[in-house]
Amino acid sequence: MSTLPPITVSSLDYDRLSALLESVSVRDVPGVVALERELERAEIVEPDSMPADVVTMNSRVLVCDATNGEERELTLVYPREADFEQGRLSILAPVGSALLGLSIGQSIVWPLPDGKETRLTVLAIHYQPEAAGDLHR
């Protein structure tokens, strides 16, 4: 994998995701290790200091997959709320943990379960809870 871009995560998301990781079996969910690695390298900031151009939990974002040129609007959610057909992407999905903390314009190359890689670019953030003042979503 190439050099990873810097990421920013709110302290509220960090705490909630850390609790999620403690409750999930690593054997059962392959995305746990990737999310742990992302949280370890993240810059942690208070929710009211979160830049509005950063993907946080429950953000609705427009991304482009460079491998096929497809653009898609996704909402980054906790596993219990996931519904890929509705664009609700679990944080434990490979692409979910890849998006967390990225800023508009940033790209990341990310391995997929089938051994291939994808390159995602954040094109826009249509909704971010911190920017909207929705801290208890």
From TrEMBL:
Keyword Secreted among record annotations: no
Show the GO MF annotations: kinase activity
Which segments constitute the Regulator of nucleoside diphosphate kinase N-terminal domain? 5-45
Q: Report the residue ranges that make up the Transcription elongation factor GreA/GreB C-terminal domain in this protein.
A: 51-127
Specify one Pfam family.
Rnk_N
Keyword Kinase assigned to the entry: answer is yes
Q: Domain of life here?
A: Bacteria
| PANTHER family listed in its UniProt record | REGULATOR OF NUCLEOSIDE DIPHOSPHATE KINASE, TRANSCRIPTION ELONGATION FACTOR GREA
Q: What is this protein called?
A: Nucleoside diphosphate kinase regulator
Which species is this UniProt entry from? Crenobacter oryzisoli
